[in-house]
Amino acid sequence: MSNATTASVKFHRDLYHEQAITEAAASFADFASFKVRSDGEHYVVDVADINPEVEGDVVAEFCNFALANSAMRLKNSET
């Protein structure tokens, strides 16, 4: 478990969809604040005010959620 209250995460545009990332950020808004920005081939998410009372790793779970959302969007676009 991490005690950090801030983090920055890069998501490559070839794998992640911006809307999937913003949906994940909205889902985790009770646990931290998220700012999504573009940086070349990546979306960068600045995570701040991570609630230290939450058990587990908020950033890792957010990343998993963003990946799952992106995978679902890709699957749905193929059907």
Overview of this protein structure:
This protein has 79 residues and is α+β, with helices and mostly antiparallel strands. It has one domain (7-78): Alpha-Beta Plaits. The chain is 39% helix and 25% strand. It contains two helices and three strands; from the N terminus they run βαββα. A three-stranded antiparallel β-sheet has the order 1-3-2, covered by helices on one side. Strand 2 (33-39) and strand 3 form a beta hairpin. Helix 1 packs across helix 2 (58-78). The longest helix has 21 residues, at 58-78. The chain is globular, with a radius of gyration of 13 Å.
Give me the secondary-structure topology:
Layout: E1 7-12, H1 18-27, E2 33-39, E3 42-48, H2 58-78
Antiparallel strand pairs: 1-3, 2-3
Helix pairs in contact: 1-2
The number of distinct helices, counting runs of at least 4 residues, comes to: 2
CATH architecture: 2-Layer Sandwich
Report the sheet-strand fraction.
25-35%
Distance between the termini: 39 Å
Q: Calculate the mean pLDDT score and round it.
A: 92
**Share in helix:** 25-40%
Annotation, overall tally of beta strands: 3
Count of spatially separate domains: 1
Q: What general form does the structure show? A: globular
Describe the biggest sheet? Answer: 3 strands, antiparallel
CATH top level is Alpha Beta
| Rounded Rg | 13 Å
Per the CATH scheme, the topology name is: Alpha-Beta Plaits
In summary, what is this structure?
This protein is of the alpha+beta class and 79 residues long.
Considering the chains and any ligands shown, give keywords for the structure.
single chain, about 80 residues, alpha+beta, Alpha-Beta Plaits, 3-stranded antiparallel sheet, 2 helices
